[in-house]
Amino acid sequence: MSTVQGVDPVTGTRPLSNAREWLHAHLDARSHPFHAISIDDARAVVDALPGIGPEEWAEAWLATGRTFESRALDAQSQGWPADAREAWRQAYQFAFVGRCPSPLHPAGQFAYRKAWRYFLQAGALDTPPVERIEVPIGDGGREGNDRVVLSRPAGHGDGLGRVTSGARLGRCRDWKAGRPVRRRRGTAQPGQPRTTLACRPDHRL
After folding, report:
1. Taking the complete model, does pTM exceed 0.90, yes or no?
2. Which of 22, 63, 98, 117 has a CA between 20 and 30 Å from the CA of residue 53?
3. Beta strand pairing call for 166-169 and 178-181
4. pLDDT per residue over 39-93, tens digit each?
5. Residue 2 maps to a domain
């Protein structure tokens, strides 16, 4: 994929028309975060973007996410779990883009929470279904939280085994991939792969 020039050297931003060109180039290449998104629907969002400020950006992508949410609910009411699962997955994809490039702004934080909800809705229709679990992490250290929320296939019990020193989630892809690793510090916050925490030796997933 060729690099799309056009970033203002002073502000570090792009004009809207150039931003659209950049986004279409990433859609063509299915670059992150567009690797699993509905391309035609995403192009429609890009073409209709009113701006690239945090609130405008988040709402533009969340609007299409809500459309897929409605489709998912309708499919579930009709007894079509496969269609519902795919619609929930697309709702997640669009909400995830809405929290980009990072959920620091309140609008991005809201999109991030919606994406997590959609992810769990889709996972609940997987085989086996995905379940939400919480793992205690002591006093939370510098992160300030005493537990971390993860997802895993339901019914696996202690199938992932003992986490001897930390928990790590794979980079945010189509599905979050969790696995134990033997390291002093590890990543664990879904959607924010550089967040770190420390785990005691007796933690289990």
Report:
1. no
2. 117
3. antiparallel
4. 999 999 999 999 999 999 999 999 999 999 999 999 999 999 999 999 999 999 9
5. no
